[in-house]
Amino acid sequence: MAQADSQSRLRDRFAVLLGPVAWLLLVALAAGTWTWAGRFLRTAEDGGLAQRTQVAAAFTRSYLTGLATRQRQDASRALADRTVSQERLEVFGAGLGYTSMILLDDRGRAMLTWPSQPGLIGRDLADELEHVRLALQRDRITVSDVYASVVVPGRSLTAIAVPFPTPYGRRVFSGGLVAADSPLGDYLREAVVPRGGHAYLVDRFGNVVAATRGLGPQIVPLARLVPPLAAALERSPDGDYRAAGQDWHYTSAPVWPDGWRLVTEAPHRRLYAPADEAQRRFGVVLLAAALFGLVAVAAIGHIAHRRLQGQRQLRRQAAELHAFNTELELLAASISHDLRTPLTAMSAYAEVLAEHYPGRMSAEEAGLFVEKIRSNAARMADLIAALLSFSRLQRGQVDLRRVDLAALTGQVWADLAEHRAGRDIRFDLADLPPCQGDPALLRQAVTTLLDNAVESTRDRPVARIEVGYQAGPEGFTTYLVHDDGVTLDPGQLKELFTPFQRLHPTGTYQSVGMGLSLVQRIITRHSGRIWAEARPEGGTTFFFTLPVALPDT
Strand, helix or coil at 174? Predict the structure, then answer.
């Protein structure tokens, strides 16, 4: 009996201890998972920053290569005469945004400079300017590191040296620019820099070519601008360092082999804020579970949920970055053509003006050529603005809220009153269900679609535009914008959302062919999709899906 009682007491004690032990094991497992989840989310943020930096480095390389290629083609036409006037050189480089320019002969002697420096004419600059010497020796385009300008004293520049043939021997055109003030600098500031962080484009000697911080006119080494970052880069291309009482994460990507590289950095408190907030919230849940012992299963489920959510987020970010990289490659190819067109036109008009104005052209004729040059310059400005809008939209935050799409569409239609003045357009707006989205972005998308519809029906005496909806995939509504104007063929439908593809000669962003590309990016940022179909009876219908509005709380 005593033995039986002893065994019973042992079983009771075991039963009493089993619960706490099992609970402690569950809490320990949850704590370990909590720590792992925090590391996983931080690793995902590190990977996202690294991927964005690699994409930006590839874009920088494509931008400089495209600029140099166009420069070489244009120089062979505009700067190949026996003598080149100061005005010709100034007009040639004006559209390229150069701070200084030098035209040299095949021995590296200066033939002409802008701004004018008579003391440099005839001087052998090949020994002083390495990029010029390399361009002559290798007969290929050369991009310089940061150097002190010989034309504009006290100014540090980056130059592109382009050798080109002429009937009078080979020549070299060298254009120096302040990269931080160029469209490349705008791209780094607007589309690359993480929140609260900085970006630096560094040459092979460690000098800063462009940065999101003010550099001033002198050459600034990264080691002087941010000494801890420069020291950390000597040890590893990515990692962490501490400066001024704050921890920073940095990453870098090569722009040229064994040469330039793009470096981005962000403070831990900003970069990891979403991950730390998620981890902190779960820590509160875990503490409550440890104290009360009633939410262990829910806490473990929450961990699993957070893990799956983090994995989905990582996959989504990877897919978005892959799509953005593909778009950048397409944009780089488009830029090579579309930005070159107005540059070539301006160069040609300026050449005609320079050759024929003195004594052989009236002031009225000269004014016409000047107006054409200004028109092409304005088109280039529109192209650059559209590119920046596209870049900002990729990185901007989407402010999701309940949107009355019917009211928003009605407001947009009223705003387009001046654009459709004098037209007989029958506008049919259905009682659209609300959606979940960013009001400002959706207004931009609806404006572009209605603007396209107005332009498509311009040749019809009485036009009809319809805005309606139909059932969509689960959790989404499919909206449509139909017009009975120009019917697009299958080939046009395939290229409809490609950047720089113009549907109509007028409109908003359609003037440079970016309107529908921006609409597609807006819909994609809302997890929807957009497509177009041609109606057999005539006209075109645009369909797009948006999330169903959340119920009011």
Answer: strand
Q: Which residue has the tokens 């875990």?
A: 286
Write the CB contacts of 227 (distance below 8 Å, at least 6 apart in sequence).
Answer: none
- The single residue listed with the structure tokens 């017009």 is 483
14 vs 20: CA distance, rounded Å: 10
pLDDT, tens digit, 9 for 90 and up, residues 17-53: 555 666 667 667 767 776 777 777 778 888 888 888 8
DSSP 510: G
Q: What are phi and psi of 286, to 5 degrees?
A: -65, -40
Round to whole Å and give the CA distance between 78 and 90: 11
> What is the spatial distance between Cα 529 and Cα 124, in angstroms, rounded to a whole number?
60
Distance CA 400, CA 288 (A): 31
Please give the C-alpha separations between residue 173 and each of 339, 341, 380, 435, in angstroms, as whole numbers.
20, 20, 22, 56
Residue the block writes with tokens 């004006």: 94
Backbone torsion region of residue 135, taken as left when φ is above 0, otherwise alpha when ψ lies between -120 and 50, otherwise beta: alpha
Is the dihedral angle over the CA atoms 29, 32, 34, 39 positive or is it negative? Answer: negative
359 sits in the region (left: phi over 0; alpha: psi -120 to 50; else beta) called left
- Strand segments, DSSP code E, in 391-500 are 401-403, 424-429, 435-437, 462-471, 476-483
In the structure, what pLDDT confidence band is assigned to residue 446 with cuts at 50, 70 and 90?
Answer: very high
Residue 250 — very low, low, confident or very high, per pLDDT cuts 50/70/90?
very high
Identity of the amino acid at 423: R
Strand, helix or coil for residue 361: coil
- Determine the residue type at 430: A
Per-residue pLDDT band at 514 (split at 50, 70, 90): low
Task: Give the type of residue at 311.
Answer: Q
Q: Walk me through the domains of the chain, giving residue ranges and CATH numbers.
A: 400-547 (3.30.565.10)
Q: Which residues have CB under 8 Å from 483's CB, separation 6+?
A: 452, 453, 456, 457, 463, 464, 465, 466, 539, 540
Q: What angle, 0 to 180 degrees and rounded to 10, lies between the N-to-C axes of helices 2-78 and 340-360? A: 20
Cα separations in angstroms, 497 against 301, 492, 510 = 42, 9, 11
Q: Which residue has the higher pLDDT, 529 or 334?
A: 529
Closest CA to 206 of 184, 232, 186: 232
Contact call for residues 146 and 225 (beta carbons, < 8 A):
no
More confident of the two residues 512 and 161:
161
Per DSSP, the three-state class of 141 is: coil
- DSSP lists the bridge partners of residue 533 as 541
Return the half-sphere exposure (C-beta side, CA atoms, 13 A cut-off) of residue 184: 26
List Cβ neighbours of 266 (8 Å cut-off, separation of 6 or more). Answer: 49, 194, 195, 196, 197, 248, 249, 250
530-534, strands of its sheet edge to edge: 424-429, 462-471, 476-483, 540-547, 530-534
DSSP 441-461: HHHHHHHHHHHHHHHHTTT-S
